[in-house]
Write a structure and sequence with these properties.
mainly alpha
Length: 123
C-alpha cells in the first residue's frame, strides 16, 4: 500500500470523477450479473428437484430441454446429469464473480483513500 502512494498519478478533478463513476458502474454490473446467475441456478435447482422424482419413478420418461433456442426431446436420465453440470458451472461462475466483486471493491476503496474521497449525504 505504501508503494502505491509513492506512484500515485496526479489526476484532474474531472478524471477522478470519471474514474469514480467507472468504479461504481463496474461494481453495479458485476452485482447485476451475480443476481442474474443466482436466479438461473435457483431455476436449475427447482427443475432438478422435479426431475429427480421422475428419475426414480421412470428414468426413460421423455422430457424436453431447450438447447440454444431449439427444443429437444430427451429422456430424464439424459437430462438430469447435464442439468447438474450446468448448475454447478453456474455456481462456480457466481463464486468467481463474487471474488471479482470483492477485489474491485477493495480497489475502489484504495482509490477513494488515495484521492481522499469522502461520500457526503445527498439531498
Amino acid at each position: 500500500m505504501a508503494s502505491s502512494k509513492k506512484k500515485l498519478t496526479p489526476l484532474s478533478d474531472q478524471e477522478i470523477q470519471s474514474k469514480y463513476g467507472q468504479f461504481q458502474s463496474d461494481l453495479q454490473a458485476v452485482a447485476s450479473k451475480i443476481g442474474e446467475l443466482e436466479s438461473e441456478a435457483d431455476e436449475h435447482s427447482l427443475v432438478l428437484t422435479t426431475l429427480d422424482e421422475a428419475l426414480q419413478d421412470d428414468p426413460d420418461r421423455k422430457c424436453f430441454r431447450l438447447i440454444g433456442g431449439v427444443l429437444v426431446e430427451r429422456t430424464v436420465k439424459d437430462v438430469v446429469p447435464a442439468l447438474h453440470t450446468n448448475r454447478d458451472g453456474i455456481r462456480t461462475a457466481v463464486k468467481g464473480l463474487a471474488d471479482q466483486y470483492t477485489s474491485k471493491e477493495k480497489e475502489f476503496e484504495t482509490f477513494k483513500e488515495d484521492y481522499k474521497i469522502r461520500v457526503v449525504g445527498r439531498v
